[in-house]
Amino acid sequence: MTGPESEGSQVRRAVCPGSFDPITNGHLDIIARASRLYDEVYVAVMINKSKKGLFEVEERIELIREVTADYANVRVEAFHGLLVDFCKQRDIPAIVKGLRAVSDFDYELQMAQMNIGLTGVETLFVPTNPTYSFLSSSLVKEVAAWGGDVSHLVPPAVLEALNGRLRQG
Ligand code: PNS
């Protein structure tokens, strides 16, 4: 079938990729906004065997599932290898990324250009909510490790997991 009817029946999919060690309110804001723009949103958690995180990938996935439970069209999966292969296997034509500041742009642009060159997958940049423009998982972990208050920067379930993990030492 061709024409508007067949185009209209296509499911619009996008992926929000990242390390999510752990997910922050900044990530969640981008995922929530992507979920309003697309029919299906995959949150793809990168498996990086050469870098041990604070949380195992399965723990990160559990936390993301918990805090995105209200978004019916969001699903969470791990991936390793190239993001474009994850996209190809699931027929995902678009990557959605948050841009916090101009400093993010150089590397993000390189990745976007590489990815479109590899398989034609597009990257859509969403301006981060200014409330979270300084926010990263690394900073959250550092501040929390030194006893700083990060309760306004991560969802309650993540705060609990973070405090539990840091208490373990
Ligand atoms: O949260 P992060 O660590 O900034 O996320 C980076 C991520 C996972 C989006 C990026 O490293 C990535 O896409 N990795 C998958 C491997 C890949 O496709 N590399 C080529 C990128 S052009």
TrEMBL record:
It is an enzyme of class 2 (transferase). Its cofactor is Mg(2+). Transmembrane segments: none annotated. One of its GO terms (cellular component) is cytoplasm. The record marks 27 as: Transition state stabilizer. ATP binds at residues 19-20, 27, 98-100, 108, 132-138. GO terms for biological process: coenzyme A biosynthetic process. Its EC number is 2.7.7.3. Substrate binds at residues 19, 51, 83, 97. It catalyses: (R)-4'-phosphopantetheine + ATP + H(+) = 3'-dephospho-CoA + diphosphate. GO terms for molecular function: ATP binding; pantetheine-phosphate adenylyltransferase activity. Residues 15-142 form the Cytidyltransferase-like domain. Pathway: Cofactor biosynthesis; coenzyme A biosynthesis; CoA from (R)-pantothenate: step 4/5. It is found in: Cytoplasm. Keywords: ATP-binding, Coenzyme A biosynthesis, Cytoplasm, Magnesium, Nucleotide-binding, Nucleotidyltransferase, Transferase. Reversibly transfers an adenylyl group from ATP to 4'-phosphopantetheine, yielding dephospho-CoA (dPCoA) and pyrophosphate. Belongs to the bacterial CoaD family. HAMAP family: PPAT_bact. Homohexamer. This is Phosphopantetheine adenylyltransferase. It comes from Streptomyces bungoensis. The gene is coaD.
